[in-house]
């Protein structure tokens, strides 16, 4: 079984430099809660150079999320900022970093064509 969260952060760590973050120098920690266990992912950005570790260190922004929710975010199925607005994703520190972080998230999957039931007609 794949782990979208782990795959996302590991891939991010392999990418190295991200031009979209060339003006950023900060650290974000993601506390991913799975039952009684909490995994920590520390994302540090130094003028576009991205590094990822499992450190439970101080950060400019700390994001706390349930594992299932963050799997959806990491796979592009859930919008991180919308999750904050719903209260499903907790953010401490600088929320502007979450907006910048969204640039690194995968795009949502392509929308499926809406199926109409037998009783519905399309408006023309």
Give the radius of gyration. Answer: 17 Å
- The CATH superfamily name is SCP2 sterol-binding domain
Order the strands across the largest sheet as they lie in space: 3-2-1-4-5
Look at the structure and give the mean pLDDT.
87
CATH class: Alpha Beta
Strand content: 25-35%
What is CATH's topology name? Nonspecific Lipid-transfer Protein, Chain A
Distance separating the two termini? 45 Å
Tally of distinct domains: 1
Which class best fits the helix and strand makeup?
alpha+beta
Number of strands: 5
Sheet with the most strands? 5 strands, mixed
Residues in helices, as a percent range = 25-40%
Count of discrete alpha- or pi-helical segments spanning 4 or more residues: 4
Helix-strand topology string: HEEEEHHEH
Q: List low-pLDDT spans.
A: none
Q: How would you sum up the global shape?
A: globular
The CATH architecture comes to: 2-Layer Sandwich
Explain what you see.
The model has no long low-confidence stretch (mean pLDDT 87). A hairpin with a 2-residue loop joins β2 and β3. The chain is an alpha+beta fold and 124 residues long. Helices cover 27% and strands 28% of the residues. α1 crosses α2. It has a single domain, classed as SCP2 sterol-binding domain (Nonspecific Lipid-transfer Protein, Chain A, 2-Layer Sandwich). Strands 3-2-1-4-5 form a 5-stranded mixed β-sheet. The radius of gyration is 17 Å and the shape is globular.
Summarize this structure as a short list of keywords or feature phrases.
124 residues, alpha+beta, globular, Nonspecific Lipid-transfer Protein, Chain A
């Amino acid at each position: 079984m794949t782990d979208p969260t782990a795959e996302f952060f590991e891939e991010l760590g392999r990418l190295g430099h991200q031009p979209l973050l060339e003006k950023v120098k900060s650290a974000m920690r993601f506390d991913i809660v799975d039952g009684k266990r909490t995994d920590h992912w520390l994302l540090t950005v130094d003028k576009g150079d991205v590094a990822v570790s499992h450190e439970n260190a101080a950060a400019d922004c700390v994001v706390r999320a349930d594992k299932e929710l963050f799997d959806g975010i990491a796979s592009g199925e859930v919008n991180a900022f919308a999750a904050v607005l719903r209260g499903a994703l907790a953010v401490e520190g600088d929320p502007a970093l979450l907006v910048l972080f969204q640039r690194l998230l995968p795009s949502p999957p392509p929308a499926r064509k809406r199926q109409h039931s037998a009783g519905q007609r399309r408006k023309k």
